[in-house]
Design brief:
Length: 145
């Protein structure tokens, strides 16, 4: 269902889509900066990504975490595994979604918003046949079909 949810987020399906989203005011400057580093360098573990951004202080770590959350909620980046850093420490590796899942992103571009909603709704009804219209609206924030 990644193509359906990706489509409904209003993403463009390109590795450099963060540029357009930033210029349209849909992502923050910090989210743009994180995306730009991933675009330039490919998948990066957390520590390398923070150092590439120059965000090494505690306060900057909060900015970093907010930017990661923002990008993940919009499905613009994904957790792409783990990597050992600084001795035995392991940290998450992040990647741009269009690079991580190119086929799914390509499929998303072919979907209309209505079709994406229809597919999600059908699966939800299959998994939860006793759900009410109120349940549906509360979960998805759009009316059932």
């Amino acid at each position: 269902f990644l193509p359906c949810f990706y489509r409904l987020e209003g993403n463009y399906g390109r590795a450099d889509e963060y540029e357009q989203l930033y210029h349209e005011g849909k992502i923050s400057a910090d989210a743009h900066a994180v995306s730009h580093q991933l675009y330039r360098h490919g998948p990066l573990p957390v520590l390398e990504l923070r150092h590439a951004l120059g965000w090494t202080s505690k306060r900057q770590n909060q900015r970093f975490k907010r930017a990661l959350l923002e990008l993940q909620l919009r499905l613009l980046i994904v957790h792409w595994g783990t990597q050992a850093e600084t001795g035995a420490w392991e940290s998450g590796v992040y990647q741009l979604t269009p690079r991580a899942f190119p086929q799914q992103v390509k499929a998303a571009a072919k979907l209309s918003a209505e079709e994406a909603r229809r597919r999600i709704a059908a699966q939800y009804r299959t998994l939860n046949p006793v759900a009410t219209a109120a349940d549906f609206k509360r979960l998805f924030c759009w009316p059932p079909e």
